[in-house]
Amino acid sequence: MKKHITISQLAQLMNVSVHQLRYFEEKGILYPLYTDENQYRMYGLHEIYQLSHILMLRKLNIPVGQIEECMTSYTADDYNQLLEHSLQKVQDEIANLKLLEQFIHKVLKEHHNLTRQNNEYRIKLLDTRHLKLWFALESDQELTARNLFEQRPSPPQLFENDLHYLSDSGQVKLYYETTSGAADYILEEGSYLYKHFSATEDAEIEHQVQQLEHYATQHQYECLSKVIVVEKSYLSIFDSNELQYEIQVKISDVQEDVT
C-alpha cells in the first residue's frame, strides 16, 4: 500500500492549488519527500504538517519570503509574540468592520427618512450633541476646496459625519460631533423642528433658513436655539447632483411627530 501522495493529491487534501505548492517549492519552504521514477513529486506526513504550518503563517499575513526564517529559527516566545500581534490586528479589523456596519445602517436609515418625508416640516426628539469647532467662515466667504485643505487636520472620516453649520457673530461656523474631549458647542436634548432639503447653492440654504423661521413663527413654536444646518454629504451617494441637508431648530417641548 502506498504511503505517499502526489502533488495534486496534496493540493486536494489541503485545499490549495498545485501552482501554489510549486511556488512554495521555488521559494525553498516546501520540498517533496522524493521524486519517483515517473518524475512525480511525492509527499508524506511530514510534508503535510509542514504545509499546514506554512498555510497558518500565510493566514497570519507572514510574507512567503519570511516563512523560512520563522520555520527554522523562531522560538516558542517568537511565535507567541507573532500570534499576539496578529490577534491585535484582527481585533482592530473587527472594530473597523463594526464601525463600517454602523455607518451603513446610518446611511440606510437616513435615506429611508429622506424618502418618506415629502418635503414637510416635522418634529423629533434628539439627544444632547457635543460639537467640536472645525473652522469658521465670514458670512460673505464662500466654502472652497482650498478652505478644506488649509483647515487640516479635518475631522475623522470627514464626509461620513454630519457637519453642523451655525451662524454666529457674522460668521458661519462648521462643527462636527465628538464623543471625546471638551465640546466647543452643545446642542441640548429636546424637541427639534426639522426638514430635509437638497441644495447646490448657498442662496438655496439661506432660503431654507428663512422658510424655517417663517414656519416656526406662523405655527407659534417657541425657538430655543439657533437654526442649525446639518450637511449629510454621504447621502449624495444616492444623487451626486446635489448635497443633502437637514435644517433644525430646538423648540419648546411638544410630542414627537412619528408619522
TrEMBL record:
Keywords, in A-Z order: DNA-binding, Repressor, Transcription, Transcription regulation
GO-annotated molecular function: DNA binding; DNA-binding transcription factor activity
UniProt cross-references to SUPFAM superfamilies, sorted A to Z: Putative DNA-binding domain
Ranges of residues in domain HTH merR-type: 4-73
PANTHER family according to UniProt: MERR-FAMILY TRANSCRIPTIONAL REGULATOR, REDOX-CYCLING DRUG-SENSING TRANSCRIPTIONAL ACTIVATOR SOXR
Name this polypeptide is given: HTH-type transcriptional activator Mta
Taxonomic source organism: Paenibacillus polymyxa (Bacillus polymyxa)
